[in-house]
Amino acid sequence: MDRDRYDKVLEACNLRKDLEILSFGDQTVIGERGINLSGGQKQRIQIARALYQDADIYLFDDPFSAVDAHTGSHLFKEVLLNMLSSKTVIYVAHQVEFLPAADLILVMKDGRIVQAGKYNDILNSGTDFMELVGAHNRALSALDNVEARSISERTTSEGEGAMGSTNGNQGNGSGKVDDAGPKGQIVQEEEREKGKVGFSVYWKYITTAYGGALVPLILLAHILFQIFQIGSNYWMAWGSPVSADVKPPVGSFTLIIVYLALAIASALSIFARAMLLNTAGYKTATLIFKKMHSCIFRAPMSFFDSTPSGRILNRASTDQSAVDMNIPYQVGAFAFSVIQLLGIIAVMS
Description:
Radius of gyration: 38 Å
Shape: elongated
Largest sheet: 2 strands, parallel
Oligomer: single chain
Number of strands: 4
Mean pLDDT: 80
Strand content: 5-15%
Order of helices and strands: HHHEHEEEHHHHHHHH
Strand order of the largest sheet: 1-2
Helix content: 55-70%
Structural class: mainly alpha
């Protein structure tokens, strides 16, 4: 933080009064698309941000379009001619009064450069630029006439205007604008919960798809897989000959056929478990996404003013990706590990 440069930028961009008006000064969070700022404030804050960076080259696209003539003149003198006097500045402008100070002027017409040079040289040599200057002068003279007429009308109706002001003051009992005091930031802090995830959250997730009807089937498929695995190991241990002198309880063909049947049953169980788990996870993720989608599209406009779009996109990308890809397999892995542990305890017993 360069305090001296910061203060100079505020002065150059005429932002001190604006910061006094804002509830939290320069700590006020600007809402999505600058919802709590006027067009002129947006433009001056953008210029101030660029100015504070102290870059070597500045590109301004019509920087005085959203400010009045007095503020535009102040910006031009303090920003372009003072603070950026030693920088390379390229600016697009429709206001002709800002052109004489430029080192080089390019006149554009139909997407092409038709004239280039200094102000007086172009003014004396071409017609296009002369037409632009003439139109600007005529517009200024017309504006001056309108302002003079409005001032004279306001002077003649001063008494009537004062009466209207008095009546207005009687309405709220004072001549001041009602102000309820500083308001909160327009962008609310994101809610975060710390600590472990409660069982109710997992239960809500598990029972979202088909009311949780697939969960018993998934557990049953894995229990069968575990039983077939234990059974095949036990069968091979029981049916294999201990030594050459001892006759095996079953023949080699029967031993292999039963073991093959148990292996196929294990494969079918693990396939059924995978299919059911993916179906449940896909259905749950789809329902959650549709509910979120519905809530976002039916939210009032104030929600989008106070919620940055990046926060919404995080829900629909990173968080939704976790619901799609990670959570179903993590929940399933936990359940399968518990079943496998119980199977090991049973075998050991």
